Amino acid sequence: MKFALSIIYLLALGVPVFSQTPEGVDQVIAAENYFNLKVEEKGLKKAFLSVSDDYTIAFRPGPMAAKKFYKEQPDSIGYLKLEPVLAKISKSDDWGFSAGPYVFKQRLDASQSFYGTYLSVWKKNKRGVWRLAMDAGVAHKKPTKKLKNKFVTPTDRDYIHQKSDKRLQQREDIVLSSDKLMSTIMKADNRIAQTEFLTDDSWLLFPGYEPMTDKKTIMAFWKDKGYKALTYPIKADRALSGEIAYTYGTATILAKKYNYIRVWEVQPTHKWNVIAEVFTEELP
After folding, report:
1. Over 70: is that where the pLDDT of 42 sits?
2. Per residue in 199-222, pLDDT tens?
3. What CA–CA distances, in Å, run from 27 to 17, 200, 209, 261?
4. What CATH number does domain 2-152 carry, 3.40.1190.20, 3.10.450.50, 3.90.640.10, 1.10.760.10?
5. What is the pLDDT of residues 111-136, one digit of tens each?
């Protein structure tokens, strides 16, 4: 029943479904739509608990254990609908992320809506079930433009199968080192860091602003606002296939405290670049 309803949601969003079981990036889209379905059925609290495990981190606004946070909330904390627009899955089919607009209401029939953009990282657990790994979002006014869908499944599925815990940790350390290098360069010059580490179609989610979806717009935003971000990475996680990962940490921008998530992807040149980034402002 859950699977059938997920397929209905995929069709409603115009996502092609070619087989009985979602494949490639369709798995990530199906996980998002399953979450949407649970929100409608049981509300936001129970929906998040249904897709979280002991390792899920939610930025509310800082990183915290999602299960602990939501268990402490009342059942009536509102309704949220996510619309995936950007999504990618790893070669190993165990790790993916999505981003797109959200709409929040206090009640399903409420006339007032609140808008924003979210970023979610999903991972398969040992039983092959998709669970939310990281969840963050930024609020902004009602979007003025419709974003085009970009759902990516790797065409090349070849990768080195690493099983050693030590080797897997080393691979995560490489990503964390990339974030540390970017953070070091940012202390000297944000623009140089952005030039070196962003891709042409990188995304930036920043509180109060609609998503910026290309390098040129992102760099103009930082320059025009006069913002300089100082970032301090804390942890990294990487897909089993190794080509996609995330880091998260804290940041300071004009004396204000933020938290951030960066989604990384290794390029054909073997260089790691940031393909999506979200900043959430710390509350007093």
Report:
1. yes
2. 999 999 999 999 999 999 999 999
3. 10, 26, 29, 22
4. 3.10.450.50
5. 899 999 999 999 999 999 999 999 99
- HEC string of the chain equals CHHHHHHHHHHHCCCCCCCCCCCCCHHHHHHHHHHHHHHHHHCHHHHHHHHCCCCCEEECCCEEEHHHHHHCCCCCCCEEEECCCEEEECCCCCEEEEEEEEEEECCCCCCCCEEEEEEEEEEECCCCCEEEEEEEEEEECCCCCCCCCEEECCCCCCCCCCCCHHHHHHHHHHHHHHHHHHHHHHHHCHHHHHHHHEEEEEEEECCCCCCECCHHHHHHHHHHHCCCEEEEEEEEEECCCCCEEEEEEEEEECCEEEEEEEEEEECCCCCEEEEEEEEEECCC
Pick the CATH number of 165-281 from 3.40.50.720, 3.40.50.800, 3.40.50.10490, 3.10.450.50: 3.10.450.50
**Hey, how many other C-beta atoms are within 10 angstroms of the C-beta on 10?**
18
- Write down the domain spans for the chain: 2-152, 165-281
The whole model's pTM is what? 0.89
Nearest to 160 by CA among 256, 239, 45, 233: 239
Q: Which two tokens stand for residue 92?
A: 């190993």
